[in-house]
Design brief:
By secondary structure, the protein is α/β, with parallel strands linked by helices. It has three domains: 87 residues, Rossmann fold (3-Layer(aba) Sandwich), CATH 3.40.50.720; 218 residues, Mur-like, catalytic domain (UDP-N-acetylmuramoyl-L-alanine:D-glutamate ligase), CATH 3.40.1190; 136 residues, Mur ligase, C-terminal domain (Protein-Tyrosine Phosphatase, Chain A, Alpha-Beta Complex), CATH 3.90.190.20. Helices cover 32% and strands 22% of the residues. The chain contains 15 helices and 22 strands. A nine-stranded mixed beta sheet has the order 7-8-6-9-10-11-12-13-14, sandwiched between helices. Strands 15-16-21-17-19-20 form a six-stranded mixed beta sheet, with helices on both faces. Helix 5 packs across helix 10 and helix 14 crosses helix 15.
Amino acid sequence: MIVARGMEGQKVAVFGLARSGLAAIRALVAGGAEVLAWDDRDGARTEAARAGARVQPPEALDWSALASLVLSPGVPLTHPAPHPIVSAARAAGVEVIGDIELFARALGPKAERSARVIGITGTNGKSTTTALTGHLLNRLGCPARVGGNIGEAALGLEPAPAGGAYVLELSSYQLDLTQSLAPDAAALLNISPDHLDRHGDMAGYVAAKSRLFRGQGPSDVAVVGVDDPRAEGICAALGRLREGPRVVPVSIGRSVGSGIAVLGGILYDRTGPTVQTIADLNACPTLRGAHNWQNAAVAYGLCRPFLPDGARFEEAFLSFPGLAHRMEQVARIGATVYVNDSKATNADAAEKALLAFDRILWIAGGVPKEGGIEPLRPLFPRIAKAYLIGEAAPAFAKTLGEAVPHERCGTLAAAVRSAARDAAGAGAPVVLFSPACASFDQYPNFEVRGEHFRTLVGELLAAADPQKGTAACTP
């Protein structure tokens, strides 16, 4: 656990008691703060009390006695309207911060830190890049603690040893609540429309993502994907700062000066006086597709300043196990591979999976995001047939029209059955579950949705002829 600093003897309210909220309570209590906590869920309030907080509803708070409000990133800060507890805090002049701000204060100024801080954000690819960055560092000799918006909350991490690193996935919601984070290395993978209901508009979303670089200076590195115009604009703006970080652009498909590129699956480093060939990503089964090549290139750019020359990156890439629900090959039945990409909750994420395969039997649907699947129209020729589920099924069927054969299945179980039937008859190589939607119409989150897909495919595998079921579902 990271112990909160600077809060000893102060009263602090924590609102929203999921993973990060409970970690904040423990860190604050360990640092000597008096913590008042609330969540609408009974179980969460019980956990807060066990962690040392006094459970108290917001309407009973004495704002004049509070130093800070630590807000869950899931609670609206500004849009569509500030939560009433945010408005009350602001009216009383009480600062509103998040767990990452507490983490930054706990580590103290950069000159006092013994371990480096690496922050990673972007619309898509954050989790894979964060996990891969931690894997590369640990594999190549730099002890890393991985968390934030993935896995363990930042304040729940074990302290990194001197010379080690904290590798944090950071969402736009978390960045909105953070003022003093100063990462030694920071990365922006990409930006496409997402979470606009929480940021007001695209400009608000871009501004939230850009906050990651605010605390950086000339001794720091900013690794930025430049294959979409908004991220490229941020890269250019960072490059114009007189006291800004060293900027490393990353592109998939084109060379960039003083940057990192992946061309034909080969990772090249052009940041030095000569071009270096780093790794053949085509050989990495868990990093398939151009989107994963971007993840790998950004992870390399984040790790490179902290590792010795000659570090064996290709071997480290090859040993990366991948993440569940992200382009996860769960089984091969006969000639057909079943891929779980449940994490693809918008069209931009689904695009990456569709680009990685041909002759696809595509399972999609759920709660649609703004714009639906219209942006995927150029990829329709790759889709042999679509199987539509959830609330999005009627709208997706209309978009697909006559361009793609499709079936409205309703549920994931029905879609898997239909896709398996068609795969056996047509010899299609891939059944791809990449929903391009949120899960909340039928599942509490994308993880549960992805686990259900894995279970359904496992049942198919168990029923298959042993001569045809050639691979077991992977954990």
